[in-house]
């Protein structure tokens, strides 16, 4: 896939490919012994976070196929611990296949935040994947490095669709917090979505 920009906005598929590949590496690195560890996403431990990554990736795959993504559970609660990494790889592969058709980018689709063009939906899932990848990276002790371009794209999406004043019980992200001094783009993204690095208080 190549990145193409048209009057309706950029093609998010290459970034979704990269974002889910980055997530795949971290999901594969998470061992069941770490599954009860906390993450910056306060309501999720490591297992719940990975389960959510599987669920939302399955959801955007179904959206790309023209199905009802809202009917797909946002968690993979029935998947055994030792099978979660494979479940994520399978969900990622299904999503990449589902979005091959260029026509899906401009078709209206239903996602939890409303009815939007496919490209906007997929961009939103890039943001979610990148954000939760940072959550997992923090929880696992920051192994390796993360792709800064993905964070820049996700931050742009977050600032557009989740302005600081749009938070509350119906929005699954907390109020913005101050980014740590000298924060990189991931730190800025996390702060915009109400997160702080583990060990730091909001």
Can you give the helix content as a percent range? 40-55%
- How can the largest sheet be summarized? 2 strands, antiparallel
- What is the overall silhouette? globular
Please give the CATH class of the domain at 10-142: Mainly Alpha
- Examine the coordinates and then state which fold CATH places here, giving the name of the CATH topology of the domain at 10-142: Four Helix Bundle (Hemerythrin (Met), subunit A)
The CATH superfamily of the domain at 10-142 bears the name dinb family like domain
* Element order: H for helix, E for strand: EEHHHEEHHH
Distance between the termini: 39 Å
CATH level-two architecture of the domain at 10-142: Up-down Bundle
| Structural class assignment | mainly alpha
Question: How much is the radius of gyration in Å?
Answer: 16 Å
The poorly predicted ranges are 1-7
Number of helices: 6
Number of beta-strand segments? 4
| Percent of residues in β-strands | 5-15%
Organism: Streptomyces citrinus
Protein name: TIGR03086 family metal-binding protein
Features:
202 residues, Four Helix Bundle (Hemerythrin (Met), subunit A), mainly alpha
Structural description of this entry:
This is TIGR03086 family metal-binding protein. This protein is mainly alpha-helical and 202 residues long. The protein has a domain at 10-142: Four Helix Bundle (Hemerythrin (Met), subunit A) (Up-down Bundle), CATH 1.20.120. The chain has helices spanning 13-29, 46-64, 84-98, 118-139, 148-161, 185-192, and strands at residues 5-6, 9-10, 108-111, 114-117. The radius of gyration is 16 Å and the shape is globular. The chain starts with a strand and ends in a 10-residue tail after the last helix.
